[in-house]
Amino acid sequence: MKYKELTHKIIGCAMKVHNTLGNGFQEVIYQRALAIEMESQGLKYQREFEMPIYYEGNNIGTRRVDFFVEDAIMVELKALTVLEEVHLAQAMNYCQAYNLPIGLLLNFGARSLEFKRVYNLNHPDNRDSQSHES
Question: pTM for this one?
């Protein structure tokens, strides 16, 4: 897919953070560490970026994403012992509401970093793709 290299680089940054800190911290600690790591890797990002949410073409409010990377990818962080389907659905819904082609859900709370790429299948960049990857 179009954003595979970029998502791979973000996931690599998250893995380095998790390998260094381990699990057990609050989400904000991982957010701060990931910001440092992405900056050191030359990734442009906005942290706690407020984005509009649309319904039927109407702006119905805003929500802050943990990171908006390279003006293309939403990154949602969690620090949970168990990542549940509701968290994945939430990230997928954000991609649709923000009209973004792809997002990442990163969970630092488990023994190993958990990550999921989430796709907005309604986005023009993804219309030809029928499969999800994780």
Answer: 0.86
